[in-house]
């Protein structure tokens, strides 16, 4: 795990750190080709410069966000925002279903909307894959 992501995780409470560490390890394992960094103050993974997945500490949970998640057709993911993002929220590591995460990460690789160029396209998303 990158040091800057481990530093982010280490700043969380014990329970939230366990969630963040689990998510980071799983994402790194399932998307080894992805670049990861702290982006807008949160850990995010990118494929070809396009944000794919990330997580962030919210007031009462840790949110796992998939930028193209609304296109995954997964009931366990909730729509987030006005674009194509969807999320899952966790308050304990025991809530995380590893098979769901692996399936969602495979879909994140195969189903992508072009967030990298959203500003250039004046807020219009185009499907990449």
UniProtKB/TrEMBL annotation:
Pfam families: DUF1801 (PF08818). Residues 17-108 form the YdhG-like domain. It comes from the Bacteria. InterPro entries: YdhG-like. This is DUF1801 domain-containing protein. It comes from Pedobacter ureilyticus.
């Amino acid at each position: 795990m990158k040091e800057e992501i481990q530093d982010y995780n280490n700043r969380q409470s014990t329970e939230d750190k366990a969630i963040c560490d689990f998510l980071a390890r799983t994402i790194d394992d399932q998307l080894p080709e992805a670049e990861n960094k702290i982006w807008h103050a949160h850990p995010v993974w990118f494929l070809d410069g396009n944000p794919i997945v990330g997580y962030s500490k919210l007031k009462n949970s840790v949110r796992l966000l998939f930028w193209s998640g609304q296109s995954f057709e997964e009931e366990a993911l909730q729509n987030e925002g006005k674009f194509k993002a969807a999320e899952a929220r966790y308050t304990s590591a025991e809530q995380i279903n590893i098979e769901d995460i692996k399936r969602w990460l495979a879909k994140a690789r195969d189903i992508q909307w072009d967030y990298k160029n959203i500003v250039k396209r004046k807020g219009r998303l185009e499907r990449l894959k």
